[in-house]
Amino acid sequence: MPQTLDGSGVPPEELEFQLFSCSHLVLLRRVAPSRRLTTLLNLLETSCSSPDLSLSRAASYCGTEKNHLNMLLRASTGFTFHSLLIRYRLYNASKLILSSDLTFLEIAHKTGFGSLSSFERNFFRLLGQTPREYRRREPRFGNKKTLGS
User: Fold this and answer.
1) Most buried one in 7, 30, 34, 108, CB count within 10 A?
2) Contact 42, 22 (CB under 8 A)
3) Which pTM was predicted?
4) Cβ(29)–Cβ(2) below 8 Å
5) Phi first, then psi: what are they for 112, rounded to 5°?
6) Per the domain annotation, does 122 fall within a domain?
7) What was the pLDDT predicted at 7?
């Protein structure tokens, strides 16, 4: 079984639910409403597709030092800035994969990845499958099986 970024080896379906739902972030907003953390989560939600988004830029936007912001984020979410940014990008990419006819290269660029290989590598690490395999689950892209067949 492929190892995930967190090393858990969680089955892809369960991992997809855990990481792509971002429900832990909704809960986090209620439990730990730090101004800086809220500002950062808003920034990630609105700007994660920008290839220029970095820890340095996020820290500047939140009015703090990058090491402090990364520590705050890791203590609150269990993720580093970079890891959370990748998850946001992959969440957006997963929606585009299943809802559009865009190529994987177009999706990679639309969601902030610098290259197709970076996109595919991160996608496989987190989901244990390629974007192509993920897209095949959608009936209009190739999974023609129905519940009755």
Assistant:
1) 108
2) no
3) 0.75
4) no
5) 100, 0
6) yes
7) 44
Please give the residue range of the domain that contains residue 38.
12-140
Q: What is the CATH number of the domain that holds 113?
A: 1.10.10.60
Angle between helices 23-31 and 35-47 (to 10 degrees): 160
Sequence letter at residue 119: F
Per-residue pLDDT tens for 20-73?
A: 445 455 555 555 567 888 888 889 889 999 999 999 999 999 999 999 999 988
The pLDDT assigned to 33 comes to 60
Q: Count the neighbouring beta carbons within 10 Å of the beta carbon of residue 68.
A: 12
Distance in angstroms (rounded) separating the CA atoms of residues 113 and 127: 17
Amino acid letter for position 133? E
The number of domains in the chain is: 1
